[in-house]
From TrEMBL:
Component of the replication restart primosome. The keyword Methyltransferase does not apply. Initiates the restart of stalled replication forks, which reloads the replicative helicase on sites other than the origin of replication. Recognizes and binds to abandoned replication forks and remodels them to uncover a helicase loading site. Promotes assembly of the primosome at these replication forks. Its cofactor is Zn(2+). GO terms for molecular function: 3'-5' DNA helicase activity; ATP binding; ATP hydrolysis activity; DNA binding; zinc ion binding. Keywords: ATP-binding, DNA replication, DNA-binding, Helicase, Hydrolase, Isomerase, Metal-binding, Nucleotide-binding, Primosome, Zinc. Its EC number is 5.6.2.4. Zn(2+) 2 binds at residues 529, 532, 547, 550. It catalyses: ATP + H2O = ADP + phosphate + H(+); Couples ATP hydrolysis with the unwinding of duplex DNA by translocating in the 3'-5' direction. Belongs to the helicase family. PriA subfamily. One of its GO terms (cellular component) is primosome complex. This is Replication restart protein PriA.
Length: 824
């Protein structure tokens, strides 16, 4: 008797583990890891992914209760064994439901039930088979269209006795084309192609129109032409093509093509460059690890303008030459077109892009190209980490310090950290590149866990821009403020010089809108968001007050709702006000603004392209202007208010300030003209500003690491934040306190925990309410990562106890944030 086989299936439901199902005997020979299957779940059928196959259960007593899985949805696995190991690690490390992690790896067009479609292949495209099809399968095949794909689910409705597994025989024999479509709306893109049919000389009868003659001339000597290619020469060829086809002079057919999100983007010839000594050292260090076939992580610490991109290109070129593939992770969608342009110039068209800015159809096409091994390089934001790349050789994480690599919804993974895990599973190399590496990476390099590759000079011996700090405190001994209430006399003078020299300037202010606070000068009423514990920001162009957390907005009132007074004051400054101020100061200058209000969708690339073409003289922006852009004619960078990020209630505030200032300063003087940087501040003696002024990462890191070590914060300790959110404030507070009480009991009762784990809180989050949800949190801290995780898991077990005894706790959402970055 054959021992039973069980499949662990990850379903898109809020469960932390995969569910066990028995594999029926008729499916045993065809089932494999990474396949999509249909299984019973409660009183319905669901599609899930097989993550493991085993002949033994953890608890054999449960065997009689295990149900059979229904069917195989896919004959071929969608993910490799390494991919599955990676997804399991992510789910386990971040204490996240496995189904939620699987959702990151497989697009919705492939996940949902009923997505598989069949199209019957014409007779001349089918392979010959000596074995006839069973009668029921032959009938099902005959019912399929050779033109339009049909859902396999509807085929099963017509033939109830045919399971997915039986129908997959049509796939195995090559009788059908398989596609995936979502809700009947997301389909593979097809293009019609035309070619001449052979005909004996002198057989043409009847006159031909001028367009028909043009088409025949275009097709003559060509294997085929697509409809768009013909339209380039003949604007409206449809009737002429139909007439030629009716007369048997040409033939046409449909072929699947991919949607290219950058099909209209220009590709320039790749620049010729010789590697510097430091760049060559980095390339050789990675090559040594690659030739040895070992995993290794590298911190590529290159100052702005040191040629990190050129180093990536050379490393990736060497990796592709070995027959392996590359993944490039970027922090912002805004950087993607710039990178894709560079990489297409060097590597051609075998590049895929993945990020949230793509349409579902584009994302669907890119994913299928990657899975079919039709690309060599994948470029994208953090979600691209889960792309199904086979034979992965190198992962590049550019601007690795950027907090955008941390997901703040769903599974709260950090793509930078998980890139190291994925590379280790693939015996690949990881390049963590930045001008300001995070202190965790820098510390690991000091300890030898990562290899440190410094690149302290700019290419072509260009000097780092000098940085001046301007004290904005207004007093009798500080006359630097000048005629503007926003810009110092020093910064205005440098702006004058820049415009006179016909160069460009960037002014950085990390706050959008016109004024961040609006209040009544009579009674002091502050206009606050009704859904969040934040003040509303005034946007002058829309003449509205807006919340930047929930997007609530209202028209700017003419009077105070409390006292009816008409004296409403706008306090503080944002990018919109700064832009208007510059228009007043420099009416002849071309001033533009780059923030989330002006840089949404295609407007972002239009704005960046205009600046690169020198159609803008002064660009005002938030941190979107700091993200690795290369503008050769920028010679002046001004930081209008450097203190904003220092005032955040976060132990990383000084590090983020140093990173922002260093990154934005690096936009100046990247070409032949030298650059200057002016930093305006009310705290001119802060060490993060002084070290940024001197481009001195080492001194900053030494100072900051000493403080972190004294407080037990990363990289010397590990954190897990337990965040509580609920629509009812009382229930949220009570749930947080109950958990804190139980956690303290656990710390007192188990000395292994109590002597090594600190718990901070319970406390209201710095922003106590967002989207009408009250927010409280606990912070767990320990030097031992494994011990901290065990303690967090025990607190999760307490959740079940509390929910059983306290029904109101069920309405409170508990978020587990491992290695949190956002403390707000």
């Amino acid at each position: 008797m054959t021992s039973p086989l069980y499949a662990q299936v990850a379903l898109d439901v809020p469960l932390f583990t995969a569910l066990s199902y028995r594999v029926p005997d008729h499916l045993r020979d065809d089932i494999a890891l990474g396949q999509l299957v249909q299984v019973p779940f409660r009183n319905r059928s669901k599609t899930g992914l097989i993550t493991d196959l085993t002949s033994e259960l953890d608890d054999p007593a449960l065997a009689p209760k295990i149900r059979d899985l229904y069917d195989l949805v896919d004959a071929e696995p969608l993910l490799s064994t390494n991919d599955l190991k990676f997804l399991s690690f992510v789910a386990d490390y971040y204490l996240s439901p496995i189904g939620e992690v699987v959702r990151l790896a497989i697009p919705s067009a492939v996940r949902v039930e009923g997505i598989k479609h069949y199209r019957r292949l014409p007779d001349d495209q089918r392979p010959a088979s000596a074995t006839p099809l069973p009668l029921d399968l032959a009938d099902a095949l005959a019912s399929l269209s050779s033109e339009e794909p049909s859902p396999v689910a509807s085929l099963r409705e017509a033939y109830p006795d045919l399971t997915y597994h039986r129908l997959s025989e049509l796939e195995r024999r090559g009788l059908v084309e398989v596609t995936y479509q979502e809700s009947g709306s997301l389909k593979p893109k097809t293009e019609r192609y035309f070619k001449l049919l052979p005909r004996p000389r002198g057989t043409l009868t009847g006159r031909l129109g001028s367009n028909q003659l043009k088409i025949l001339k275009l097709l003559d000597g060509m294997p085929s032409l697509s409809l768009p290619e013909i339209r380039e020469h003949i604007p409206s060829p449809y009737s002429s093509l139909s007439a030629l086809e009716d007369r048997g002079l040409i033939t046409s057919w449909e072929e699947e093509v991919y949607r290219d999100p950058f099909e209209n983007a220009p590709v320039e010839a790749p620049p010729e460059f010789d590697l510097t000594e430091r760049q060559l050292h980095a390339v050789n260090a990675v090559a040594e690890a690659r030739n040895a076939g070992r995993f290794e992580g590298f911190v590529l610490h290159g100052v702005t303008g040191s040629g990190k991109t050129e180093t990536y290109v050379r490393i990736i070129r060497d990796t592709l030459a070995e027959g392996r593939r590359a993944l490039v992770l970027l922090p912002e969608i805004a950087l993607t077109p710039q990178f894709v342009g560079v990489f297409r110039s060097h590597f051609g068209e075998r590049i895929a892009v993945l990020h949230s800015g793509l349409t579902p159809a584009q994302k669907f096409d890119q994913w299928r190209q990657i899975r079919r091994d039709e690309v060599d390089i994948v470029i994208g934001a953090r979600s691209a980490l889960f792309a199904p790349i086979n034979n992965l050789g190198v992962i590049v994480v550019d601007e690795e310090h950027d907090s955008s690599f941390k997901q703040e919804e769903g599974t709260r993974y950090n793509a930078r950290d998980m890139a190291l895990v994925r590379a280790k599973l693939a015996s690949a190399q990881v390049i963590l590149g930045s001008a300001t590496p995070i202190l965790e990476s820098f510390h690991n390099a000091q300890l030898g866990r990562l290899t440190y590759l410094p690149m302290p000079e700019r290419v072509a011996a260009r000097a780092m821009p000098p940085v001046d700090i301007v004290d904005m405190r207004r007093g009798p001994h500080n006359p630097t403020a000048g005629p503007s209430n926003l810009l110092s006399a020093r910064l205005l003078s440098e702006l004058d010089n820049t415009l006179h020299d016909q160069k460009q300037a960037i002014l950085f202010l990390n706050r959008r809108g016109f004024s961040p606070c609006v209040l009544c000068e009579s009674c002091g009423h502050i206009f606050e968001c009704p859904n969040c514990d934040v003040s509303l920001t005034y946007h002058r162009r829309m003449e509205a007050l807006r919340c930047h957390h929930c997007d609530f907005s209202l028209r700017m009132p003419e009077s105070c709702p409390q006292c009816q007074h008409t004296g409403i004051e706008r306090k503080g400054v944002g990018t919109e006000q700064l832009e208007n101020h510059l228009h007043e100061l420099y009416p002849r200058a071309r001033v533009a603004r780059l923030d989330r209000d002006t840089g949404a969708g295609p407007r972002l690339q239009q704005l960046l392209s205009s600046f690169r073409r020198r159609e803008i003289d002064i660009l005002v922006g938030t941190q979107m202007v700091t993200k690795g852009h290369d503008f050769p004619d920028v010679t002046l960078v001004g930081v209008v208010l450097a203190d904003m990020s220092l005032n955040f209630p976060d132990f990383r505030a000084a590090e983020r300030t140093f990173q922002l200032l260093t990154q934005v300063a690096g936009r100046a003087g990247r070409a032949d003209s030298p650059g200057k940087v002016i930093i305006q501040t009310y705290t001119p003696d802060h060490y993060s500003l002084l070290t940024a002024q001197n481009h001195d990462f080492s001194t900053f890191a030494q100072h900051e690491l000493a403080q972190r070590q004294a407080m037990g914060y990363p990289p010397f300790g590990h954190l897990i934040a337990l965040k509580f959110e609920g629509t009812h404030e009382g229930a949220t507070v009570q749930a947080t306190r109950d958990y804190a009480t139980a956690a303290r009991r656990l710390l007192r009762s188990d000395r292994t925990f109590g002597d090594n784990i600190a718990m901070l809180g319970p406390a209201m989050a710095p922003i106590g309410r967002i989207n009408n949800r009250s927010r409280w949190q606990l912070l767990l801290k320990a030097s031992d990562r494994a011990l901290l995780r065990r303690f967090a898991i025990r607190t999760l077990e307490l959740a079940k106890h509390f929910e059983a005894g306290q029904p109101q706790h069920r309405n409170v959402r508990i978020i587990i944030d491992v290695d949190p970055l956002n403390m707000l």
